[in-house]
Input
Amino acid sequence: GQRGGVEWWAGGGGGGGYKGVAGVGGFWERGGGGADGRAVGGGVGGGRCWLQVRELDVASQIVAFAKVYLQVAPPEGLDLAAQVAYCWNYWPGEEPVLVVFDDVTGYERVAEVLPPEESGRFVVLMTTRRQDLPLMVASFEIEVLSEAAALALLQQIVGMERTAAELEMAKAICEWVGYLPLGLELVGEYLRQKPE
Output
């Protein structure tokens, strides 16, 4: 199914260092470690960094994320581009890190702030509703699910009891993530870990 394709593709089957998921947008979470590795194929034990691209300054988000969550503070006096490079170079740990550039409206919005591909450490995932990513970005299109299929996927992750007890909320969640499998997996895993 769709999930198996994403796992194959994110695990390297799709080729290229940067990945783009067309048909996905509007989702943001920040934090370290956890469920996202399962959602995109595992092997991402170094945590995750979610960056909203559509309306926010991406470079500032990277620096703020590194300061708040990683205690990585670039030296004073560096311009913003140099601060971003510093953050990527001094990212703590050695395990792979998932970096999601969410809702990319144009490649030019992220081109200058991407982590160094040669490090081999960062798994970059770009979500977009556009179909025209550059050739160096391996693309994988995700189709929107029907409401019934989206609810079934959410039930698989969160559990039948909980979704049945809160059916209207479950439907609202499905609509909020645009009936997209990746969004449902991420929200569902978050809800599964937070039983209340």
